[in-house]
Design brief:
single chain, about 65% helix, rod-shaped, mainly alpha, 2 strands
Length: about 240
């Protein structure tokens, strides 16, 4: 959700409060027959909109914190993977097994195992041959590749480095932490996404959303008090925008 859209939502709500304030000060002359336009309903809608915005602020903070924590944990994974492969290559295992480890490391690094194929002419058209995705760099894939590397090096007892960060137990603990951090991002995004959807419905649903209600209130004031009236002059410049 962009800052621009979040700002737009807040502006619509603030303008709605401003509109309600004018309606309240119009006294008994503001007397729409439609329930949704009555002051009590408008005030209830405003309170609900403010409440859901506070919920979204809290959920956004929680989600952003989870994202930042995950980013920090994953930051050292690529150099660590290279160090593990280096230590594995000198522990005495066969070259073919070392190549297997290097292949996993290439996946973690996002590198191709072979050069990208050159375009070729097919029926007079220059075409690049299709290949499987070589950059499986989503966080899920990164964890999967790390687990594969751990499985490979732990299978060979010759891999027994003295460095704490390269030990199998340390690597397994890291894999658990990475998985937990990734799950925290996923689990914090779900309620945030639902809350944003509820907010969008509350603010922008046709006929019943805050913006459409506000526009109907302005129309009611225009019809009731007149286009050139002081009352309409006070509210006609209060803007409401549909931004979803």
């Amino acid at each position: 959700m962009s800052t621009l859209q979040d700002t737009g939502n807040a502006v619509n709500i603030a303008n709605f409060q401003n509109l309600i304030s004018y309606c309240s000060n119009f006294g008994e002359a503001y007397n729409p027959s439609r329930d949704a336009l009555k002051l009590g309903q408008l005030q209830a809608l405003l309170a609900e909109a403010k409440s859901i915005m506070l919920v979204i602020h809290d959920l956004t903070t929680e989600h952003d914190d989870a994202v930042n924590h995950r980013k920090k944990l994953f930051a050292d994974l690529r150099p660590l993977s290279t160090k593990v492969c280096g230590a594995f290559s000198i522990c005495g295992v066969e070259d073919a097994v070392v190549e297997d480890a290097k292949g996993i490391n290439r996946k973690i690094q996002g590198q191709r195992a072979s050069a990208k194929p050159e375009p070729v002419m097919v029926d007079g058209v220059l075409t690049t041959p299709k290949t499987n995705s070589s950059s499986q760099q989503s966080f899920d894939y990164m964890i999967e590749h790390l687990n594969a590397l751990i499985s490979l090096v732990s299978f060979h007892s010759a891999y027994n480095p003295n460095e704490t960060d390269l030990k199998v137990t340390t690597l397994k603990a890291l894999a658990t932490d990475l998985n937990n951090a990734n799950n925290a991002v996923i689990n914090s995004h779900t309620p945030l996404d639902i809350a944003r959807g509820n907010r969008n419905t509350l603010l922008y649903a046709p006929k019943t959303g805050l913006v459409d209600i506000a526009l109907d209130v302005k129309t009611y004031i225009k019809v009731t008090f007149g286009t050139g009236s002081m009352e309409y002059g006070k509210v006609k410049g209060i803007l409401f925008k549909r931004i979803v």
